[in-house]
Design a protein that fits this description.
The chain contains ten helices and 49 strands. It is mostly beta strands and 805 residues long. Helix 6 packs across helix 7.
Length: 805
């Protein structure tokens, strides 16, 4: 009991301490749970992750737990140069648990369970050997990460040697072409203990600038002091090895280093290596540290230096480095290397005739590189064809936000025929991704029959998305559809199956059918089920789902997916919860394209707002909030366009008699949270808001946010006007603010949410602040996910929805 008499018998300092303790107790609440039926759905086992082997006759089904217990996330980790490192096992922080895998030999109707060691846990999805006969995977144990290999035919597995893997800077291993050897990053032998922290600092951390223009993103988890540098070098340094999958014998490749990229030439006689060098930086992530790229011979001896960069923290916004970049080994050549170099100083605003040049250098790499061609716009890379020296070259026009792809013969590179030319936002015209074939020598190229190239398209259209497999003629540009999802279904092409093109692997689903994998015969259309995944929440299958389309007052077409409870009856007016994320477009025609479908099966996972429908709400998911205009100035009207888009959705659903417009809530995550706070500050359309992991003061992201191209000092009014923190006194509708205490996303510092809450509290508004221990930008722990759902349900019920009984 605390006494409030003037003549207190308690010393003042003790009285204050007790008050602080009571306040801490009030703020440190236990995890909560939503209704039991919702929690059971969240905790239900998800369907496995599926990958096909390179020989296209087997599937690997990997079981996983996307929501481990909070104890997993609470394991200590170090924040080092943009990476989160578990020092106990010298590996990247684990936020997903992989629990086992099975090989489905669909060509034979056999399922093989892969043996797992009893004293460890699989560290990720296994990797297929090129011949499709083995898989390799890491295993987390008490003191590190082991390398294991399993026979895909028998499931028998074994550990390779006694080495411990190091995945801090990149994937720890990959197969070489012979399916017998793996290139491995491991902890150097005899490394010794980790550097101990110095209690007494040797001096302050100091940075100085003079005339240097360094406009970098507001990265998190950066190095902060000399001790961090020591730790980064200790945990990131690895020894490259070539390891036999049969015997486990290992051969050293080079000496220990900070390797970020290691790529063998097609003939595996050379290795392209990039490694970090000192000095490190406290302002950028490790990918922008000082580094060098060189070519080694197969024994690890350096034979050619290609480029050495200092710390690259002066790259122009949305620009690139000056010097060789985007290295690429050309297929069907033993060892030919290509790369790009900027001709505009890396500055996208500079007016030049050509932005990049592409260079070429052949083995033995003793001569001078020669210029192959120039690109008018920013080089975006090659997709290679199966004919020697033939490829598709793509470039990106930043000013128009436009992609162009050319057919190029490297024997005559000046002759370039345009294959695709379209806006990056034009999903209706987007051809999709090229289907890839693996050549006998192990190279990957676009699948091709004569002049026809195969493309996997999402099939976006006014009627919704209907995925399809197309083939496009290189000479005539004619397009033919080989296979397309039928009406009222959503069936995606995964890969060709077997040795020819007569069969394909697809992933089929519908509103009421769980996604499963099928073998489809293209000649007779016969379908064979390969998996039998079950509905994890059959009690929700009857929920109503439809794509709705409506217009903004300025004529911009909008859409979203509307979910209604299974027992909904026409004429009922339900409370509405709307979830959205603003996106930028250059024109109304592409902004209004339909990018959703109501033909997919609905999974209720993690902390999805879809769970509101289980509580009797109408839910509008992915309501389009397009910000349309010149890419240089579109955010000048962000508030007007976002407000009008949200209001248009409410007006339309109200006109249908579906919703009670006095009980509309709005929410979003990250940029959607930023949008949510702005909608509450600048409109009266909503009863409440839910904002998760957002950034609310744009002066704290002064060198751009989302697609904003101007700095704060170039567009002060815009930065100030779109910052809801500056209008906290206008946020009078209740706002639930949720954020992970360990958010590492650039810009969305946890303090952004803390400060907005304090501003609302200080100006008399209504808000609730929920900080989730150990969570980053997205929430993963089982306890966190169900707690977030409980918070959202209670907030909506209290301020504009269906109150908890």
């Amino acid at each position: 009991m605390i006494y409030t008499k003037t003549k207190s018998t308690l010393p003042i300092f003790l009285f204050a301490a007790m008050l602080c303790a009571l306040q801490a107790i009030a703020q440190n609440n236990p995890y909560r749970r939503p209704p039991a039926d919702v929690a059971s759905i969240v905790e239900a086992r998800p369907t496995p992750l599926v990958s096909m082997n390179p020989t296209r006759d087997a599937l690997l089904l990997t079981d996983y737990n996307p929501n481990p217990g909070i104890a997993t996330l609470a394991q200590p980790f170090l924040k080092l140069a943009g990476q989160r490192v578990n020092p106990q096992i010298n590996a990247r922080q684990r936020i997903t648990e992989f629990t086992g895998c099975t090989v489905n030999w669909f060509s034979e109707g056999k399922n093989i369970v892969v043996e797992m060691p009893a004293n460890g846990r699989m560290a990720g999805v296994p990797s297929w050997s090129p011949d499709g006969k083995r898989i390799a995977f890491g295993v987390d144990v008490a003191d590190g990460v082991q390398l294991w290999v399993a026979d895909a035919r028998t499931g028998k597995s074994k550990r390779l040697g006694s080495l411990l893997l190091n995945d801090v800077l990149a994937n720890a291993f990959y197969w070489l072409k012979d399916s017998e050897r793996l290139l491995v990053r491991c902890i150097p032998s005899g490394r010794g203990p980790a550097p101990s922290a110095t209690v007494v600092p040797s001096g302050p951390s100091i940075e100085e600038t003079s005339g240097k223009v360094s406009q970098v993103m507001t990265y998190q988890d950066l190095l902060k002091n000399e001790h961090d540098e020591f730790l980064f070098e200790y945990y990131a340094r690895s020894q490259l090895m070539v390891v036999s999958a049969s015997s486990g014998k290992a051969a050293l490749l080079g000496s220990p280093g900070l390797y970020t990229a290691v790529n063998w030439s097609p003939d595996e006689n050379y290795v392209l290596v990039t490694q970090l060098r000192k000095p490190f930086s406290y302002r950028v992530q490790f990918s922008n540290f000082a580094r060098k790229t060189e070519i080694w011979d197969r024994n690890g001896k350096p034979i050619r230096s290609l480029v050495e960069f200092p710390v690259t923290d002066e790259i122009p916004r949305q620009g690139t480095v000056v010097g060789p970049r985007a290295f690429d080994w050309q297929p069907i050549h033993g060892a030919r290397l290509l790369w790009a170099e900027a001709l505009d100083g890396g500055d996208p605003k500079k007016k030049v005739d050509y932005r990049d040049k592409v260079m070429l250098l052949d083995a033995p790499f003793s001569g001078e590189a020669r210029e192959l061609l120039k690109t008018k716009h920013r080089y975006s890379g090659f997709d290679w064809l199966g004919t020697k020296d033939a490829g598709l070259l793509s470039e990106f026009d930043r000013d128009r936000r436009w992609y162009t792809t050319y057919v190029v013969d490297l024997q005559n590179p000046s002759m370039q025929d345009t294959l695709f030319d379209l806006s990056v936002n034009d999903d209706y015209a987007n051809p999709g991704n090229p289907v890839l074939d693996r050549l006998p020598n192990g190279d990957w190229v676009i699948a091709q029959d004569g002049d026809w190239l195969y493309y996997d398209s999402e099939g976006a259209s006014e009627a919704g998305s209907y995925p399809r497999l197309d083939k496009i003629n290189l000479k005539t540009r004619e397009k033919q559809t080989v296979y397309q999802s039928a009406n009222n279904t959503f069936e995606e092409f995964i890969a060709f199956a077997g040795k020819g093109r007569d069969q394909i692997l697809t992933r089929y689903q519908s509103k009421t059918e769980v996604p499963n994998f099928y073998l489809v015969n293209l000649k007779n259309k016969a379908r064979t089920a390969l998996t039998e995944f079950k509905d994890p929440a059959p009690q929700l299958t009857g929920i109503q789902k439809q794509v709705v389309k409506y217009n903004r007052p300025d004529g911009t077409p909008l859409s979203g997916t509307l979910y209604l409870p299974a027992d909904y009856k026409p004429g009922q007016k339900l409370p509405l919860f709307m979830w959205a994320y603003p996106l930028e477009y250059s024109d109304k025609s592409t902004a209004g394209q339909v990018r959703v479908t109501d033909n997919t099966f609905t999974f209720y996972r993690n902390d999805s707002p879809l769970f509101f429908v289980t509580q009797g709400y109408a839910v509008l998911m992915d309501a389009t909030i397009p910000i349309v205009g010149d890419p240089e100035t579109m955010n000048d009207t962000f508030l007007e366009q976002a407000t009008a888009s949200g209001r248009a959705a409410i007006d339309y659903l109200d006109s249908l008699g579906i919703i009670d417009r006095t009980k509309v809530g709005v929410g979003g995550h990250s940029y959607g949270a930023f949008m949510t706070a702005n909608l509450l500050a600048h409109s009266d359309d909503y009863a409440y808001g839910i904002a998760r992991s957002g950034a609310y003061n744009r002066t704290l992201t002064p060198f751009g946010f989302q697609s904003e191209r101007r700095s704060f000092w170039e567009a002060k009014d815009v930065y100030m006007n779109v910052s809801p923190f500056n209008f906290a006194d206008k946020i009078k509708k209740p706002l639930l603010l949720i954020h992970g205490e360990a958010d590492n996303n650039p810009g969305t510092f946890t303090v952004q949410t803390e400060r907005l809450y304090q501003a609302i509290k200080g100006t008399g508004g209504t808000a609730r602040l929920v900080l989730l221990p150990h969570e980053s930008h997205g929430y993963r722990a089982r306890e966190s996910v169900v707690h977030v759902l409980a918070e959202m349900f209670d907030w909506a019920g209290k301020y504009g929805g269906i109150a908890k009984p």
